[in-house]
Amino acid sequence: MSGGPPLPAECARLAAALRELRERTGLSLAALGGRTAFSKSSWERYLNGKKLPPREAVEALCALADEPPGRPLALWELAEQRWTGRAASAPGAAGGGAEGTPAPPPEPDTGRRPGRRVPGWSLAVGAVALAAAVPLALVLLSDEDAATGTAAGPGAPGSASVPSYAQSFEPGCHGEDCEGADAQAMGCGAQGLPATLATRRSAGGQRIEIRYAEKCGAVWAKATGLRLGDRVELTLPGADAKEVRAASRRDTEIYLSTAMTATDDPRRARVCLRPAEGAAECFAAPGG
Fold first, then answer.
1. Where are the domains of the chain?
2. pLDDT tens-digit profile of 105-119?
3. Transmembrane region positions (predicted)?
């Protein structure tokens, strides 16, 4: 992109957010192409800001990264406004004169491979979200809960907004097949599947969650804000303990999850944070 116009700020922020999500998944570009309806080359363009990704691509990456889609989609809304030129043509937009009009960014790219179908839930979500446009995006960008909040449980207020994807998506394992497996790799952490049974903020600021995906029949612990050397342990009666440790500085900057434990009664789950310094803190799911 050297020698060309600088990437608009809205588009640069979106590309940076997508790169962060991709790093969190641990997937290569080829693996992203295999797990989504978009090709390896398309993902390279999206992640480097060369092309505007379709909304469905952002949703798919959020699902793979186990990330609530609110903030990434808000960034996409703003980038889409800039990419299509609608932001510049809006009443009161800065630089509306001939000399102040920035060079148009690259055209949007569908990136879909022939023969690959985009799930119907993505199209439905897109149609609903377009009605909200920029005002919704600005609200979501200021809402920290949208970026770090937990999934709504069945019947919870707002759960109707979760697309039918959670009902139609089939994860890679169920029951005993999920024992010891990674929730992310198996799709058990995909958008709308897991419910957060309990959350604890430790004295040191670490955030620990007990998560359960009924469709997978498995429970796991998710931790963010760990410090170097911190360990998180998940136990259930009659099952092997599952543990994850922050072994590098990178581990302290992203979330970590234990392997899954197969169970049909996640209320028996108990999680302990064993910090590198200080006393252990343990808690269980409600009713356990």
1. 9-148, 171-284
2. 444 455 555 444 444
3. none
